[in-house]
Structures are given as C-alpha cells and as structure tokens.
Amino acid sequence: MASGNPPQQPPPGARAGTVLRHAKIWVVPGVLSALVALLLSLLYMGGILTPSDHLHRMPIALVDSDTGPALPGHTTPLGAEVAASIVANSPPGQVQWRVLTRAQAQDELASGKVYGALEVPEDFTRSVAALTTDRASARPVLAALTNPGVGSLGSSLASQITQQAAHRSSLEIGKQLLAAAPQASPTDQLLLADPVDVQVRPGHPIGRHTGLGLSAFYYTLLLVLAGFLSANLVHNAVDTSLGYADSEIGPWHSRRPTLPIDRTQTLLVKMGMTAGLSLVTTSMIMLATIGLLGMDAPHLPLLWLFSFCACLSVGLGVQAINAAFGGIGQLVAMFVFIALALPSSGATVPLEATPGFYRFLGAFEPMRQLVGGVRSILYFDARADAGLARAWVMIALGLVGALVFGFAMTRYYDRKGLTRMVPKPS
C-alpha cells in the first residue's frame, strides 16, 4: 500500500462571524445599496403613477372637414363651432390641439408627431340638421383616430382625450337640438340629447407583430443592454488578460503576469474590442427578434446599421466612463444608460405625461434618442422627421463625446503619472 504525504490544510483564517461583527465592513455597501434602491424607486415609480395628472402640451390633431352649410341662426358650419369649443374648453397647458387639414393630420400621424386626432367629417352639419326632420338616416359621426406607433399608453391617453372632447361636443349640440325641437317624442329626445356617434379607429395602422406599438421600446432596450453588458464584459476581460485583475471562476483562481501598458492604450484596446463585438451583438439581436420571433421590421439594412451604431455608441460611452471613474464606473454607467434613461425614454409613458424632470432628461438621455430612431424605422417608414434624423445626430454626438471624454481622461491620468496599481506577485 503506497504511502504519501497528507494534503496540506490551509492555515486557519478569520471566521465569517468575526468579519460580520465589524461595523466598518457594512458602511460602504450598506449606504450605496440604500441610496441605489431609493433612487431607482423614485425614478421608476415617480414617472408612471399618475400620467394623466402630468399632461403637458400633448400634441393631438384637430381636423374640421365640415363643409356646411351653416344652420339657421349660425354664421359658420357646426364643425367650426365644435373645433373652437374643444380648443377653448380644454384644460390649459395639458393638450396642444393642432388644427390641421385632413392631409396634414394624416402626415403628422404618419410621422409620429401627434398622438392621435379628432376629425369632424364633411357632412357633419347636414347630418345634425337632418336629426330634426324625417330625413335622418344615421347619427352624425366624430372620428377619434389613434396612433399606436407612438406607444400603446400614449395612443390610449390621446384616445381618451379625443373621445371625452367629442362627447362634450355631442352634449352641447344636444342642448341646441332639444331647444329647437320641444315637441319631440321622449324617444327622439333621448337621441337628440346625445346625438353624435364617436367612432374610434386607427389613424396610422401598424403591423400585427409589433407588440401593440411596444416592439420599438423593447428592441431599443435590447440595443442598450447589449452595448452596456458587452462593454463591461470587455472591460473585465481585458483587465484580467493584462494582469490588472484576478480571474476567478467558481473555485478556480488565476492571475496573469502584468503587462506594462498605459491607460490610453488600454482604453484603445477596450474600445476596439467593443466595436468588433458590436457587430456580433447587433446581428444576434436581429436574428432573434426578426429571424426567429418574426417581429415586423421593414428597412432591414437601415435597421441593422442603426442598431450597430446605437450599440457602439453605448459601448464606447461605457468604456469612457469606466476609464474615468475606475471601480465605480460600472455603477455610474448603469445610471447614465439605464436607470435614468428608461423612465425618460418616452417609450412606455409619453414624456408629455411625465413630471418636468423626466422631460428634461429626455432631451439628452440616450435611450430617448434611440427609441425615436427605432420607431421611425419600424413604424413610420424611416422618415427623418419622425425622429430618425435626431437619433442619428445624437448617436454621432454620443460617439464623439465618448471618444473625447474617455481619451482626455486617460491621457490626463498618464501625464500625471497615475499608473494603474500593479498586483503583487503571489
């Protein structure tokens, strides 16, 4: 029976209970965890709880196609009176009624510039006048047009506003009709009291495989998360490969020899790898969402190019922040690209229905810009004025900003001799 030396036991060390009893070890993670939880709760819940209470100049089209003639005792067709009454009686500052022609309204619906529309048809006055005669064939109609491409909640809010405005107009017209027909039967009085039929229909339909207008948001979220996570994976992998961080997978631990390299060259390596991997992540996202799941997606080459540039812009931004802030860079990047970006994206809750703080963030937060570009490509025929032009400009600014900020910080650190800490040999 072969004999051998017994395996060496590691020297006794500190016990977990001893470590946990030291108050100092709790301070930094405890304070940071509490602050992050508090801020995330305020950010996410603060923007969604009462969207109707925070309406601010939500753009909705108002179309008066009524050709008259004016009713006895009136100087204009009834449609003009309805439109003027709707604008005058809307709560100030909540809705921005855009009085447009039918063609103009259709163009703004097709570019996502309005969340919906209320249309008075050509025969509205004649249909109302016929109600007090034996020539009535159908109830007058007001059309509430939705725009699902701007998001299901935004379109729904606009639809509620247009339907409420149409119903108020119907009651006002009903008072006039009842006064003009005092001898009407009780059945006719019920009809005349609320004479207008409000019909809801899509003003700019979108495809069936679009998640009711949410596919643009989730696709954009995938782009941001892919750029964010890929950049952090590259950041950690490069630091490990260059010997500036330990590699630990399960029970296996290793440490590579440290390669002398300054911060600027390290950032160049990380950004180069991020650019290369953005090609892979973009292709995988499109393969999964379009190829396997069947998401409606016209303009595929343009969508791929836009997606790649979006992922790249986020990834380079993360690398620049990590290079500038070091160990807390990933937390800072998380707030910049995710925590602050999601509630201010306007993708689920329109910015016109959020507090002013979120509208301020939406002017520059990256996800807001990317959602506009993706929506334009997926729902609005890639129109520049539907948000695509602004998205391209903001992506370009983001790329330039990441390069300038990242390399300015690393060159400053290098000139100051602030080299990275070299791990001690084991």
From TrEMBL:
UniProt entry keywords in alphabetical sequence: Cell membrane, Membrane, Transmembrane, Transmembrane helix
Cellular localisation: Cell membrane
Bilayer topology term: Multi-pass membrane protein
Alphabetical list of InterPro entries matching this protein: DUF3533 (IPR022703), T7SS_ABC-Transporter (IPR051328)
Membrane-spanning intervals of the chain: 25-49, 216-234, 275-295, 302-325, 331-351, 391-413
Annotated coiled-coil segments of the chain: none
Record-linked Gene3D superfamilies: abc type-2 transporter like domain
Similarity-based family: Belongs to the ABC-2 integral membrane protein family.
Protein name: YhgE/Pip domain-containing protein
Source organism (scientific name): Kitasatospora terrestris
Lineage, top ranks: Bacteria, Bacillati, Actinomycetota, Actinomycetes, Kitasatosporales
